[in-house]
Amino acid sequence: MNLSVEDRGGADPMLFIHGWCGDRSHFGHQLDHFGQTHRVLVPDLPWHGRSPADGPITVAAFAGAIADHLDNAGLEQVLVVGHSLGGSVALQLASERPDLVRGLVALDAGFAMKRDLLAGFAQIATELRTDKYRHAIQVLSNGLYVPSDDPAVRAPIEEQMIGTSQRVLVDGIQASLDYLNNDADERYAALPMPVAVLSGSDPLSDVARLSDMRPDTLFGQVVASGHYIQVFAAEQVNVMIRQFVRVFNMA
Question: In terms of residue numbers, what domain contains 175?
C-alpha cells in the first residue's frame, strides 16, 4: 500500500502516527518543530486523510503498512511517536519490528486504560453500529477536550471526527478495543527499547499499572489539555520528546 506521507528534513528520523479519525495535520506543530533538526515522517494511516481506503482496519494492518513504507524508504531505528490509536499502532510496530524502532513515545494512548473508560468506549462502539451513530460520535468527541482547549482549534478536529464514515468509526473503535483487551499490555511490558508515555490533564491510562508493568518507562503529563496534547499543548509535548531524545542519546 502506498501511504500518503509528509517527509521533511535530514538525519535522525522521527515518525509520528496520528489517531483514529485523524490525519497527519494533527502533528503540524511537531513537523514544523522537529523538521528543523530531524528527518520527520508523518503518514496518513490507511482509510484516513489522503492514504488509500484499502485493507482491514486493524492495528496490525496499520502497523504493517507503516513497516512496509519504512522498509521501502530504507529506514530503520526510527524514533516513533504515536497519538491515541496511533500509540497502539506504534506499539505494534515496535513489538513486531524492533529493528525499525529505536524508541517509542505514546501520547495519551490507551495502554492499561482505566476500566471505566474502557467500558465506556465499548458502549460507544455498540451505539456506533446504529443509525444514531452521529450522535454517539458527538458524545465521544465532547469528552476529548477540556475547557482550556481553544475552540477555534478544536472545531476542525471535531468536524473531522464527526464527518468520518460509519465504517471507519465502527471498525476503528473496535480495532482499538480488540487490541487493548488482548495483548497490548504484554507487548508494552516486553518492549526492548526506551519508552515514554505522555498524557493529558486526565490520562486515559492507569499510570500505576503501566509503571508496575514497566518500571523504566518515563512518564509525563501536560498542563491544561484534553486528549489532543500534541495540538493544544504542543510546546510542552515537544520539550518532553526532546528530553527523551537527549536522555537516551537518540540524536
Answer: 5-247
- 209: domain CATH number is 3.40.50.1820
Pick from 108, 102, 64: nearest CA to 207: 108
pTM over 0.85: yes
Residue 250 has pLDDT above 80, yes or no: no
Total domains present in the chain: 1
Residue 65, sorted as left (phi over 0), alpha (psi -120 to 50) or beta, turns out to be alpha
User: What are 240's strand-pairing partners?
Assistant: none
CA distance 15 to 38: 10
Cβ pair 43, 5 in contact under 8 A: yes
Q: Contact 20/83 with Cβ under 8 angstroms?
A: no
Beta strand 78-83 pairing with 14-17:
parallel
Q: What is the Cα 152 distance to its own chain's centre?
A: 22
